[in-house]
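Holo prediction — 2-acetamido-2-deoxy-beta-D-glucopyranose.
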Amino acid sequence: MLLGTLLSLAVAVVGTAVPNGQTLTLNGIAYYVSGIPVSVLRGHNASVFASIATEGMDLVPLTVLSPTSNTSLDSLLSDFMRRDDVFQPSFLRAVYFSKSAKVDATAPKSDLAVLESYGNSLVLSDSKVQTTVSNSTLAILTTQLPNGPYFVSKNTGGVFRAYRLYPDDNLAFIQGAISDENGGFLPLPGVTENAMTKDVAVPSRLYYEPTPEHPLAGLRLGVKDIFHVQGLKTSGGSRSYYYLYGTQNVTAPSIQKLLDLGAVFIGKTGTVQFANGDRPTADWVDFHCPFNPRGEGYQSPSGSSSGSGAAIAAYDWLDLAVGSDTGGSMRSPAAVQGIYGNRPSTGAITLDHVLPLSPALDTTGIFARNASLWAHAIQNWYPNMRKNHTSYPRHLLLAGPGWDGQGITPEANRSLSTFVRGVEAFLGSRRTMVDVSQHWRDTNSPTTPSLEEMLYLTYATLTSVDQYNHLATPLFADYKAAHRGRQPFINPGPLARWEWGQANGGNASYEVALRNMTTFRSWWETSGYGQSDAASCSKSLFMSVYSAGTTDYRNQYYDAPGAPPLGFSTGRIAVLGGVPEVVVPVGESPYNSTISLQTEYLPVSVALQMARGCDYVLAELIAGLEEHGVLKPVKTGTRLYL
Ligand SMILES: *[C@@H]1O[C@H](CO)[C@@H](O)[C@H](O)[C@H]1NC(C)=O
Ligand SMILES: *[C@@H]1O[C@H](CO)[C@@H](O)[C@H](O)[C@H]1NC(C)=O
Ligand SMILES: *[C@@H]1O[C@H](CO)[C@@H](O)[C@H](O)[C@H]1NC(C)=O
Ligand SMILES: *[C@@H]1O[C@H](CO)[C@@H](O)[C@H](O)[C@H]1NC(C)=O
Ligand SMILES: *[C@@H]1O[C@H](CO)[C@@H](O)[C@H](O)[C@H]1NC(C)=O
Ligand SMILES: *[C@@H]1O[C@H](CO)[C@@H](O)[C@H](O)[C@H]1NC(C)=O
Ligand SMILES: *[C@@H]1O[C@H](CO)[C@@H](O)[C@H](O)[C@H]1NC(C)=O
Ligand SMILES: *[C@@H]1O[C@H](CO)[C@@H](O)[C@H](O)[C@H]1NC(C)=O
Ligand SMILES: *[C@@H]1O[C@H](CO)[C@@H](O)[C@H](O)[C@H]1NC(C)=O
Ligand SMILES: *[C@@H]1O[C@H](CO)[C@@H](O)[C@H](O)[C@H]1NC(C)=O
């Protein structure tokens, strides 16, 4: 012990300071400048920056530019302003023309005039470009950089990426992250002032251009904090888990695939503890529940992918967020936040290095604010999808409550009716109302137990026993070993579920639950509404109302959590059938807020489902509905379309 202390002291004494980057403000906008240079500017000296540097500051904003012969500098800069929220004209005070730049040789004055109109007073360039720019200063970047805003150190010539800092006012993130420029990530060390929240840093969008190999290039990505990411700790919504296991050494392959496709990871988002079902606010003991931005801002974000859903609904500086769905953890947040979010066919992509709820049922999906982006991401992400369809499903089936307009507002009913008519026109087929439980009775012998009876305990048993075996047992053992035999704190919800699973048969019941699930799944695929089709992949498009815009205030008191969710409902079909389902926003419903004392609006959302393996055609259909105006992109903030 003493030796250990001495050794660590010795390390501290000989250790040198490690730069953590710094935060600064440019023209009122907060930036983070990482401590890791991505290139070095050589051949100049610090005095060239004298006219633009801030007294006593080493960092100077710089834009790397490479106009091509067919884009004028003027239109290139307009494009920067339109596409990027990190870039601003203050970065143009110093400009570096990179090697490939084609500054208009016949009219160098005009390019200079454009730059000057943006406030430029220093042009750096390598020798080749200098011939066309009479008063540029000779300098060379040791590593070529993509166009965009950077910060350069006057003293060392080190060039750093520019990150804009955004406050996480909705508490959607657990932690912001930046690239370590070496395949891994670092926790964002920069924080500005905010109430309880952290800042999140986003790099310039100009660094990235989509290509066939990188179709998601530059799309900013948040990831639910149950996926391991190299260089960051994983919380799973548990402080005990976060501190016990420390920094993770691997990135979950499902997330790595998104990074390989070009997505830009910017941080970990909040999750219900271990992806269970905590409700705000009393159940969320270890962390505070993220804020749903819709309505007056005090509605539950649902869960368990609460932070991922809230972040997409609240922040236009974020494009995509990954979550997971075992029993509704993607679909419910998508529904109540009025965004696009799916659970895929089970097994669509590996869930290695992801905290498990139930490996038999766990899936991972994506949230986005519009159908085309959501479909683009899904279609590039999952490896196991049938892509050979030649048509869309011919049967449009409507199931579950809500379609008859009972118990919902006239506005919600109108949104649902308009949507169904749009889908009918798109598919060229009329709706059929179906009753799944009745269909089960019709296609089974009279002595077969009802669906409600067979599946009453199935989901509860699979999840509570699986997570007890695969997560709770090793966590308790590891924690005990590290903390003098203590048991870690667990939120009341997951703890009650694990206890319920052990008190209700444990492994023995699990085997029965698995058999019941298999019975349901094979019925759904052969005699139910999940049959496949050679031409359209899925014989039917199966739709249910997922949310009609009813309130779920976050300041409600409930009874203490007990058993896991029991019973059978339409939302369980995708879970137990292993089939793909996506929730989409179709409208808004008004309510008189007991908090704001004003009329507010909440999203109305529908779930669309197809046969197992048909994720690709489902995504294509959703994108097609948006192209035809049946679905619409949504905005961030309180309202979907305003
Ligand atoms: C730095 O560069 C400026 C302008 O290029 C030049 O006038 C000055 O002599 C240089 N200073 C040093 C120390 O090299
Ligand atoms: C610019 O021109 C080149 C060839 O002249 C062409 O390959 C490229 O696509 C053009 N780029 C744009 C943005 O038009
Ligand atoms: C560049 O040179 C021209 C002519 O020599 C001069 O008028 C102009 O002010 C210079 N621009 C800068 C940014 O130094
Ligand atoms: C990461 O690797 C280090 C060194 O091998 C190890 O001590 C640590 O436990 C690993 N962390 C995790 C979370 O596996
Ligand atoms: C969808 O979202 C992406 C990224 O947020 C955006 O670039 C694109 O323009 C949006 N598309 C539509 C149709 O709104
Ligand atoms: C719901 O809307 C449909 C179509 O507009 C209408 O026929 C039906 O009466 C409405 N139902 C209720 C309960 O308002
Ligand atoms: C399995 O199904 C039977 C009826 O067929 C039912 O009695 C039992 O409760 C179910 N058990 C589980 C764990 O799903
Ligand atoms: C239950 O099953 C798991 C494996 O799925 C096993 O590790 C565990 O020991 C079993 N528990 C009991 C009490 O048999
Ligand atoms: C598509 O592939 C499936 C099997 O993977 C096959 O059954 C089906 O006939 C194919 N459909 C078409 C239109 O080729
Ligand atoms: C809101 O309250 C007003 C006045 O009590 C009532 O007329 C109206 O129907 C209510 N609106 C909703 C959506 O409940």
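READOUT: The pocket of 2-acetamido-2-deoxy-beta-D-glucopyranose (ligand 2) is lined by residues 68, 70-71 (CB under 6 Å).
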